[in-house]
Specification:
The structure is a single chain. The protein is mainly alpha-helical and 148 residues long. Strands 1-2 form a two-stranded antiparallel sheet. The longest helix is centred in the first third of the chain and has 11 residues. It starts with a helix and ends in a 5-residue tail after the last strand. The relative contact order is 0.13. About 5% of the residues have low confidence.
């Protein structure tokens, strides 16, 4: 890609935080990330775009597991005041159009599910769901959005 084309691309693209790229014609980490995401299959790109569109969402008040957006993630699950990371994953997949017709009126133990899963690929790809379970049974789930 020539410098002029790269500058045009940068002028219309954003990084993982939603901030516009600097149209400087340089292949820095933010531009490389945006180009890599643009080359993903549609479903992966949509997952990453929806998830990144929520960067900065916090609980209000902090630590309460509540807030306008958090409540929106939890509402379809029928749960409230529980850790919301799994509800967020479901919300993103639904917003990306990947859960059309799937009813989410029940809660399954993400920790139990993750213990049974085997990696489907040799390494994570943007749009993949990641998760871990701590020895005490707590854990976390979210999305891979790129390499660090």
């Amino acid at each position: 890609m020539d410098v002029a084309a790269l500058k045009r691309y940068q002028a219309q693209a954003s990084d993982w935080t939603g901030h516009p790229l600097k149209a400087d014609g340089k292949l820095g980490p933010r531009t490389l990330w945006a180009l890599a995401i643009a080359d993903l299959p549609r479903h992966r790109r949509e997952i990453v775009e929806v998830a990144c569109g929520q960067v900065g969402i916090e609980e209000h008040p902090l630590g309460s597991n509540r807030g306008l957006e958090v409540d929106n993630y939890l509402r379809p699950t029928g749960l409230s005041s529980v850790p919301w990371c799994a509800a967020f994953v479901s919300w993103v997949l639904r917003e990306a159009g990947l859960l059309d017709g799937v009813e989410l009126k029940y809660a399954a133990s993400a920790a139990a599910m993750l213990r049974q899963l085997r990696p489907a690929v040799s390494g994570p790809l943007p749009g993949d769901v990641f998760g871990w379970v701590n020895p005490d049974g707590t854990g976390h789930v979210g999305f891979v959005i790129g390499e660090s």
